[in-house]
Amino acid sequence: MNKNSVRRGLAAAAVLGVVGGAAVCGAAAASAATNDAVQCDADQLSVTLVHGEPGAGNRFAFLQFTALPGQYCELDGALPFTLAYASGVSVVLDNSNATPVDLTPGDSANEQLHWVAVQAEEDQVIPGSLTVQTDGPLGDTVTLPWNQGPVDDYVSGIVHDNKITVSAVQAGPAVDN
């Protein structure tokens, strides 16, 4: 083997070592980003209340969560919320189909809200706002105006279906059912 062949072989090995090392480092970083996802806090998300299509006394809406630019986080299960001026309405979380949803910048996830509005007007209430709690380490909240109409209310003494059932978060933007 001549000197030029040896030099070329060493140069190629050095280049492959650098490229291969970068690939290994890149793979490790990507793996860490997906395996060590932090739970989302309010400052990482845009949260909106999206109207759903009603039918036969059933009402639907969606809470849509969108990761802000530069934010990577995870949502898991049904995020709890409270309603202002609706003390007779209970919020029931349905985590039966819960799987973690990883969000990258611009990605959305949503949870469906379902309730009934069939009672007479005096047996219903229109909440003032909805305050959702994110599941991140800070336990931040986001408050949105309630623009979804009436909900059957227990305070009036009529027990029918005075609850809002919240599905587990699922990947993708909110869509009408």
Give your account of this protein's structure.
The chain is built from 1 helix and 13 strands. By secondary structure, it is an alpha+beta fold. The strands form 4 sheets. Strands 1, 2, 5, 7, 12 and 13 form a 6-stranded mixed sheet that branches. A hairpin with a 6-residue loop joins strand 1 (45-51) and strand 2 (58-67).
Q: Mean pLDDT, as a whole number? A: 80
Helix content: 10-25%
Count of individual helical segments:
1
Shape: elongated
The number of E-state strands comes to 13
Low-confidence stretches: 1-35
Rg over CA atoms? 25 Å
Strand content: 25-35%
Task: Say what oligomer this is.
Answer: single chain
H and E order: HEEEEEEEEEEEEE
Largest sheet: 6 strands, mixed
Structural class: alpha+beta
**In whole angstroms, how far apart are the ends?**
72 Å
Short description:
With 177 residues, this protein is α+β, with helices and mostly antiparallel strands. The protein has one helix at 3-35; strands at 45-51, 58-67, 73-75, 81-83, 90-94, 101-103, 108-116, 124-125, 129-133, 141-145, 151-152, 163-167, 170-171.
Strand and helix map with partners:
Blueprint: H1 3-35, E1 45-51, E2 58-67, E3 73-75, E4 81-83, E5 90-94, E6 101-103, E7 108-116, E8 124-125, E9 129-133, E10 141-145, E11 151-152, E12 163-167, E13 170-171
Parallel strand pairs: 5-12
Antiparallel strand pairs: 1-2, 2-7, 3-6, 4-9, 7-12, 7-13, 8-11, 9-10
List descriptors.
177 residues; alpha+beta; 6-stranded mixed beta sheet; 1 helix; 34% strand; disordered N terminus
